[in-house]
Design goal:
The structure holds two protein chains of two kinds. Chain A is mainly α. Chain A has one domain: Formate dehydrogenase/DMSO reductase domain (Formate dehydrogenase/DMSO reductase fold). Helix content of chain A is 69%, strand content 0%. Chain B has two domains: 43 residues, no CATH class; 198 residues, 2-Layer Sandwich (Alpha-Beta Plaits). Helices cover 23% and strands 18% of the residues of chain B. In chain B, strand 5 and strand 6 form a beta hairpin. The chains are: A mainly alpha, B alpha+beta. The interface between A and B is large, with 46 and 51 residues. The structure holds iron/sulfur cluster (2 copies).
């Protein structure tokens, strides 16, 4: 009875009574989304800090601060989602180690601390300068920030530089762990046919990098436009090529996953096929895999391969980036909510409706999502993000 | 421990150990022998004797509870659903147990469970009444699995397997994350909309500890639901278990349920 859009020989849509409610909704959609932005932004900043890709020097610190701003809010959706948020600390106190989720608290917090220390090391010089220049209350503020050490000499610079590079170096596997881990949390649930694939961590990780890089591109363009001091087009081009390549890899994994499941014609496909042709047709087939993927591949491909310059390059880059941040957001939705639309009865699909004002509604989600930008703005009022006043961590190139 | 009286002596769940030392020892010896055989068989291939999973070591807990649902006997009256709702204050629209109606005809499979069969079932729509091959009502609930994914995924260890076989949630510890709800292949769990914690069938732990049977078992007019001790060779569940004609739901999930179904049509998921 596939013509009815139901699995197998099912005559009517039947969902288990307890499946009528989608337990993980928008909060759990934006949780991996924000986590992904953190990982992506960090990887971008490490391009310069660790791999010495010179073109990315102007945005290395910016991407780091942005990663931190997103990182501050990555776990907030989880708190909103928990039925007993006041008990969240238990995940630190009594992690139940058989659970894929149990050490998330540790991975996430240690990563945030790492980001914080790296920013601190990179900006220590600035803090010391400010502490020496400022008067009154602000002086105390800066004095605390530089932990009372107000002298800075070449040895300090050398040490900071090495330490920052070290942190950025361990930060890369840590960022990959953080986000691959989020994919594992979903991929390891055998009861949800649409989640259960060992490719999930890789898909989450690669899409995280894509969304992070795309978001950085748009933020960079916006900030530069506001400041009116022109754009670094050499970097813009490199940015676009990086994004394009990262997305091709990500898309290849996504295509591989769906091709594999459909070719295998296994038990999962019996429910996944009607899911994709039914409830997820628009958001997955047309959106995630169609328009929002082919569009950026084309647009960024043109911008990368053809001799396009200046403003046109910027417009194409922003168009591609916008589609990609949406692609990844829709992908998170399709995975998280989409997986729960298949009732465990294997004989029907759950109806999902967006809520706006609810505790886990769109309003809360939007508010949480705006907070990292506000945080970034506040931080940027205090420290120079684009001026290059911080320590220069460029590693020596091997010739 | 005193002898416990229940309305159904065949289902007697708690007995004083000393009343039947011999049969008990024999039973344990059988179990041990079974386990040993199973171990040997497993060398030749996994899953050859899955029954050994359910047996306790000799020094294990006194009781090893199991639940049996005889689909041939169930009439879909919904008494059990109502009793469970009352006994456990289960919120509206959520179910610790429910009953499904399966109707298989030449075209395919019709399944429904209006309000979890809280009010039983209405007469089937005429459209589906032609050429019926099979028509059954199937009670569902938490399977108190031996290898429960819900316990595996709980990030804080708030849900656990009690020694006698109950899968329980510590409501003073659950943080309501819902990971266990996702991991249960049977949709036996939900986040209680009033308490905001994970909720599910407890096999009426509170009653069983007092020597009573789960509420659903006591109200079933057909004795389609049985609860008993696998450590007691005379219990009905032990005999059914030994007869080895039972099935479990979604065996491909390898959760090893301790809810055994009798007469389950293959269409049941
Ligand atoms: S049926 Fe579900 S909730 Fe019950 S023990 Fe098995 S996996 Fe856990
Ligand atoms: S909802 Fe409660 S019992 Fe379930 S996984 Fe989360 S903390 Fe554990």
């Amino acid at each position: 009875m596939e013509q009815l859009g139901l699995p197998g020989d099912t005559l009517v849509n039947y969902i288990f009574p307890n499946n009528a409610h989608v337990t993980w909704s928008i909060m759990i959609v934006i949780y991996p989304y924000i986590t992904g932005l953190v990982a992506g932004a960090f990887v971008l900043s490490s391009m310069y800090h660790v791999f010495g890709v010179k073109e990315f020097k102007p945005i290395a610190n910016f991407a780091l601060v942005a990663a931190f701003s997103f990182g501050m809010f990555a776990a907030v959706p989880l708190l909103f989602h928990l039925g007993q948020p006041q008990r969240f600390y238990q995940i630190y106190m009594t992690p139940h180690t058989t659970s894929a989720m149990s050490i998330f608290g540790y991975v996430y917090s240690s990563y945030l601390v790492l980001l914080m220390i790296e920013i601190w090391v990179i900006y220590r010089k600035v803090f010391i300068e400010k502490a020496n220049e400022a008067t009154g209350r602000m002086r105390n503020f800066w004095w605390v920030l530089c932990l009372g050490i107000t002298t800075y000499n070449p040895e300090s610079a050398k040490f900071d530089k090495q330490f920052a590079k070290f942190l950025a170096g361990i930060g890369i596997p840590w960022a990959c762990l953080l986000h691959g881990y989020v994919g594992f949390v979903f991929g390891s649930v055998k009861a949800v046919a649409w989640w259960a694939t060992p490719l999930q961590p890789f898909i989450f990780l690669s899409s995280a990098i894509v969304s992070g890089v795309a978001m950085m591109f748009m933020m960079y363009s916006f900030i530069m436009w506001r400041r009116g001091r022109g754009y670094d087009y050499v970097m813009v081009k490199k940015f676009i090529i990086t994004l394009w390549m990262a997305f091709i890899l990500d898309y290849a994994l996504e295509v591989l996953e769906i091709t594999f499941v459909s070719y295998e014609q296994g038990a999962h496909w019996a429910v996944i096929k009607p899911l994709l042709l039914g409830p997820l047709y628009e958001s997955y087939v047309l959106g995630q895999m169609g328009f929002l993927s082919l569009g950026p591949i084309l647009v960024l491909g043109i911008a990368s391969l053809l001799d396009i310059k200046d403003k046109a390059l910027l417009y194409l880059g922003n168009l591609g980036s916008l589609m990609l941040v949406l692609q990844v957001l829709v992908m998170r939705f399709n995975v998280v909510v989409g997986g729960q639309l298949i009732s465990k009865s294997e004989r029907g699909f759950v109806d999902y409706e967006f809520e706006f004002f609810a505790k886990e509604g769109l309003l809360t989600a939007t508010t949480i999502f705006i907070m990292p930008f506000v945080t970034y703005y506040i931080i940027s009022r205090f420290i120079p993000i684009f001026e290059g006043k911080s320590i220069d961590t460029e590693p020596k190139r091997l010739h | 421990m005193p002898e416990i009286e229940t309305h159904d002596t065949k289902n007697l769940i708690i007995k004083e150990r000393s009343t039947e030392p011999d049969s008990r020892r024999e039973f344990l010896q059988h179990l041990l022998a079974g386990t040993a055989t199973a171990t040997v068989l497993m060398v030749f291939g996994p899953g050859v004797n899955a029954r050994s999973k359910y047996t306790n070591p000799a020094d294990g807990p006194e009781h090893q509870y199991a639940y049996v649902i005889d689909i041939n006997k169930c009439i879909g009256c919904g008494n059990c659903v109502r009793a469970c709702k009352r006994e456990n204050s289960v919120p509206e629209d959520y179910f610790r147990t429910w009953v499904e109606r399966y109707v298989v005809n030449a075209d395919g499979v019709y399944v429904d469970s209006p309000k979890g069969a809280l009010e039983g079932f209405e007469k089937l729509n005429k459209r589906f009444r032609e050429n019926i091959k099979i028509s059954r009502t199937v009670p569902k609930m938490c399977n108190h699995c031996h290898n429960p994914p819900c316990i595996q995924v709980c990030p804080v260890g708030a849900t656990f397997k009690a020694p006698e076989g109950f899968v329980l949630v510590d409501e003073d510890y659950c943080m309501g994350c819902g990971y266990c709800v996702q991991a249960c292949p049977y949709a036996a769990r939900f986040i209680n909309p009033v308490e905001h914690k994970s909720d599910k069938c407890t096999w009426c732990y509170h009653r069983v500890q007092k020597g009573l049977l789960p509420a659903c078992v006591t109200v079933c007019p057909q004795k389609a639901r049985l609860f008993g001790d696998l450590n007691d060779a005379e219990s009905e569940v032990s005999k059914i278990f030994e007869a080895d004609q039972w099935m479990v739901l979604k065996p491909e999930m390898h959760t090893d349920p301790t809810c055994f179904y009798i007469g389950m049509p293959r269409e049941v998921v």
